[in-house]
């Protein structure tokens, strides 16, 4: 099984890249929005094999690779949902959701409330064995997550898409702000980017 690839990014598509490794082009699925054609990259690879299906999923971080593999072991979580969780929610928030028993933090494309609850129940006792921890530097404050969820829902209601929202949420300053303040700040950032 392929576990790691290092090569040049030949082409970038919305949901995958073609990675040239010594003249062989591999189709590697994943979240590669920030990858540029012509760049050399190294990716952890999960080789997904099912009957007539052979797919490669790539991750820049070991923690994403490990978590993706564990998520696939949960009933009802396929590669599309596992990838959505890692791309849209992120490893830190997934771990925080499991540790704090907050299924709403796991909601994303293809992951509803029942699946989120199943993930928490099945992963609760496995987290420590994964060797992945939310570090002090990246520890997510649960209040901030709840506030960002409210902001995201408000922006979706206003017609913005998830990719636009994700980029803006990363730029928000959360200190001493309410969710209303953050929605206003997000709208200002959207207006600036359209000027």
UniProtKB/TrEMBL annotation:
Belongs to the RuvA family. Has three domains with a flexible linker between the domains II and III and assumes an 'L' shape. Domain III is highly mobile and contacts RuvB. Residues 69-88, 103-122 form the Helix-hairpin-helix DNA-binding motif class domain. The RuvA-RuvB-RuvC complex processes Holliday junction (HJ) DNA during genetic recombination and DNA repair, while the RuvA-RuvB complex plays an important role in the rescue of blocked DNA replication forks via replication fork reversal (RFR). RuvA specifically binds to HJ cruciform DNA, conferring on it an open structure. The RuvB hexamer acts as an ATP-dependent pump, pulling dsDNA into and through the RuvAB complex. HJ branch migration allows RuvC to scan DNA until it finds its consensus sequence, where it cleaves and resolves the cruciform DNA. SMART domains: HhH1. NCBIfam families: ruvA. This is Holliday junction branch migration complex subunit RuvA. Residues 143-195 are annotated as: Domain III. It comes from Candidatus Dojkabacteria bacterium. It comes from the Bacteria. Keywords: Cytoplasm, DNA damage, DNA recombination, DNA repair, DNA-binding, Hydrolase. SUPFAM superfamilies: DNA helicase RuvA subunit, C-terminal domain (SSF46929), Nucleic acid-binding proteins (SSF50249), RuvA domain 2-like (SSF47781). One of its GO terms (molecular function) is hydrolase activity. Homotetramer. Forms an RuvA(8)-RuvB(12)-Holliday junction (HJ) complex. HJ DNA is sandwiched between 2 RuvA tetramers; dsDNA enters through RuvA and exits via RuvB. An RuvB hexamer assembles on each DNA strand where it exits the tetramer. Each RuvB hexamer is contacted by two RuvA subunits (via domain III) on 2 adjacent RuvB subunits; this complex drives branch migration. In the full resolvosome a probable DNA-RuvA(4)-RuvB(12)-RuvC(2) complex forms which resolves the HJ. Its main location: cytoplasm. The keyword Manganese does not apply. GO terms for cellular component: cytoplasm; Holliday junction helicase complex; Holliday junction resolvase complex. InterPro entries: DNA_helicase_Holl-junc_RuvA_I (IPR013849), Hlx-hairpin-Hlx_DNA-bd_motif (IPR003583), NA-bd_OB-fold (IPR012340), RuvA (IPR000085), RuvA_2-like (IPR010994), RuvA_C (IPR011114), RuvA_C_sf (IPR036267). GO terms for biological process: DNA recombination; DNA repair. The gene is ruvA. It is found in: Cytoplasm.
């Amino acid at each position: 099984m392929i576990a790691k690839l290092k090569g040049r990014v030949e082409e970038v598509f919305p949901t995958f890249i073609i990675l040239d490794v010594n003249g062989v082009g591999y189709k590697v699925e994943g979240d590669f929005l920030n990858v540029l054609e012509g760049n050399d990259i190294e990716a952890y690879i999960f080789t997904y094999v099912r009957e007539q299906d052979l797919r490669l999923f790539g991750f820049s971080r070991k923690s994403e690779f490990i978590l993706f593999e564990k998520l696939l072991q949960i009933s009802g979580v396929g590669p599309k949902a596992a990838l959505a969780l890692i791309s849209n929610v992120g490893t830190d928030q997934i771990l925080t959701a499991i540790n704090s028993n907050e299924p709403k933090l796991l909601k994303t494309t293809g992951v509803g409330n029942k699946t989120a609850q199943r993930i928490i129940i099945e992963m609760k006792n496995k987290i420590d064995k994964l060797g992945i921890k939310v570090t002090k530097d990246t520890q997510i404050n649960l209040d901030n997550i709840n506030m960002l969820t409210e902001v995201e829902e408000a922006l979706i209601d206003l017609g913005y898409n998830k990719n636009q929202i994700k980029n803006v949420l990363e730029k928000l300053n959360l200190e001493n702000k309410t969710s209303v303040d953050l929605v206003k700040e997000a709208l200002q950032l959207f207006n600036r980017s359209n000027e």
